[in-house]
Amino acid sequence: MYSASFPLSVKLGVCELNMPPAAVTNLGYVPPDGGWGWAVVVGAFISIGFSYAFPKSLTIYFKEIQEYFSVSYSEIAWVSSVMLASMYAGGPVSSILVNRYGSRPVVMVGGLMVSIAMVLASLGTTIIHLYLCVGVIGGFGLAFNLQPALTIIGTYFQVKRPLANGLAMTGSPVVLSTFAPLNQFLFDSFGWRGSFLVLGSIVLNCCVAGALMRPVDKRVRFKPSDGPPRCEGGAAEEAAEVDVSAQSADPAPEDGPAESKSQSYISRYIDFSLFRHNGFLIYLSGSVVMFFGFFAPVVFLAPYAKHQGTDEYSAALLLSIFALVDMFIRPITGFIGNSKWVRPRIQYFFSFAVSYNGVCHLLCPLASGYEGLVVYAVFYGLAFGMLSALLFEALMDLVGAHRFSSAVGLVTIIECGPVLLGPPISGALVDTFRDYKYMYYACGIFMLVPGIFFFIMHYYNYKKVNEELMQSALVISNNKEALQLRINQDDETMKSKYGLDTVD
Amino acid sequence: MAASPWEGEGGEVRRCSERRQKPSHAEDRGTTAMTSSWKQQLVQVLLVLVSCGHGDTKTAAPTPTPLPPVTPLKQDAKSAVLTGKNFTERVELSSPVNMTLSCTWKGDQDKPPNITGHWRKDGQEIQDSRVTVMLEDENYKLIQVFSVVSEKDLGNYSCVFGNEARIDFILEVLQMGEKRDKPVVSYIRDFVVMTCKVEENKPIPTTWNWYTSNGTDKEQINTTASKRFKIVSEERETKLKVKDLTLDDAGQYYCGAVYPIGTSVGQVELKVITFMEPLKPFITILIEVVVLVAAILLYERSRAKKDSAEGTQTNAEQNTEPQGDDKGAEGNDSVRQRK
């Protein structure tokens, strides 16, 4: 009878508040944290893998396409850039669609889009044709794969979310490693046109991934007597039903569409209030600087090795070592992030990962000879993998799964700039100074400064969240007592009126 | 270096053809010693000039008039030291050159004070090349200058010490880098562009040619004859564009970089296939995807039916999510189930 808006299960007072909880998730249901969730992780693995690996793996065809269309190398390289730019720019569109329709349809449409794009590209007659098909349509299709995959993990996992994220992000190096020899084989057998056609069908597997992304069952409500409160970020779960005006500043569930009033149609589907969210702002400002130095070292690893005098095969081997280390460290990072020591302080772990990247690059010029480069490749693989595994987990942790979709859309479109400008700027640095070490110093600074920034800002942020949560806990316990009083009173009246036992 | 044959008075007979053959010695021509009777010489000069015009005839008197200008041959030298029994060195050439080849041999256990050495070209002993080599500083040395002017002068030059110790100098035309060992693949009715390049630090060829293989022969491609072929050549790069491909066009194509000394040949293989070839894996993977998607969705539907058959909570209990994504998703889900 009583659809309690304050469930009696709030045990915040019992939970130790010295473990800063994640943002209030306000989910309204229990994420399965397993079961079909693992199938969803597989689906996300495939989608994320294709999104990141596909643009990089196409570069193998560029030389022949360049000869075929008689264009310069930079014109061909634009295809990759346009694809990456579309992928990042498509973020907000993807967010809107996911907020409206859920992950599954968006991923399937995305897969279809990329497939059609590749098939059309295989029939292309001019380079502009390729820009449009592979670049724009393909890029958007990949954007429709990336965002929903990340979002759906947040809906299925709460307790084991870092692990799930880490596993899903492993898709990128794994798919890249499989694509490299596969593309070579396709190219040798079918030339670039046939390869694009076959790639179009391979990319359709994103639709399979989409099929796996079954919308989570939200009918399973939060069970009151759930045993001792699980405080590893589960503190957020406890506070789920409570309308806490903590840092998340999430409006009550019913508010959403009605809130628009004078605001535009867009704001209904993208949460611009995120820009008032401290955690989100910290993350955004740090990432913008960080992404300038994120991809450039990977791009220049092989040329740097060749510059040092190693032959082409050894240079390629460096990249393979890097990818292999990357592949293994991502699930391990997810696992570490999930442990009870790290989970509540996962933002520190993220800051550490960013700073470690920076230190790694700053030390790179000290590496001498091929062995030094191998050591650097190993450490860089560790750093890159750690950072990638935590990249979206950190954001989810800050804004909550609820608003993650909008958040990631906004983040990717703003990151678009640094991601695209990073490698050319680094290239310009290399060309001006004729030495790779200045580029590595620059990338190192680009990553170390945000890392330290994150450390400092999150220290303050955690403190603030803690204070607010303690305040609201007090409020809740007060209200709880008041409610108990009220319920007892009503019980009495009911009993006296109808002579019934209360339905508890 | 041959001594100038025109020293001395009275002049010596010198054939015009000999003079033509050794233009390098143009500088070597020393000044003739003036005879007392210069008038006599002038007559002889005139005679020589007249008879030279008629080709190889024995003429009299040297002439101070210079021969028609000839570009002097470049000088180059290659040397090698042999420690074992055999050694091979490849030498790449692009223009005519006077090549000085010098071989140094450390000798056997027993080092006789002199041994016979000779030179070979392509396995055949060069006439009059046998010399006696003295042991100097524990080494034997053979030096010879070869005039490499045309393609037939290229080959395998060997210096042989005694009977076995041999150093081979393989003089050949500049090879093209970036050999493409995998075939270029293209499609029927499509076009293909095949390129050949010469590396940055190597000299630029005089011209480029393309050949197609005709049985065992190489047949030069004539772009005016067949409109389907188009050759675009820049300094270091040449492109052959073949339009409107047919299955017969498949095979080996050769690009030739023409240098003054000879032609350097690169090879490109062309493979022509129909669009059915990649279509087969395409369709296979397409079928696989459709099967998997159908299986997953059917499995889900059967599980949902089982759930609703067990009579769990009704859909009315759905909470109102602001973004309404579960509504939308489940709405779509039911749409799918209706299919």
UniProtKB/TrEMBL annotation, chain B:
Cellular compartment(s): Membrane
- Give the main location: membrane
What the entry lists under Pfam families is as follows: I-set
The residue ranges of the Ig-like domain are 68-159, 192-274
Q: Give the keywords, sorted.
A: Disulfide bond, Glycoprotein, Immunoglobulin domain, Membrane, Transmembrane, Transmembrane helix
Q: Which GO terms describe its cellular component?
A: membrane
Q: Where is the composition biased (Polar residues)?
A: 310-322
- The UniProt regions of compositional bias labelled Basic and acidic residues, in chain numbering, are 11-30, 324-339
Taxonomic superkingdom: Eukaryota
This protein's name: Embigin
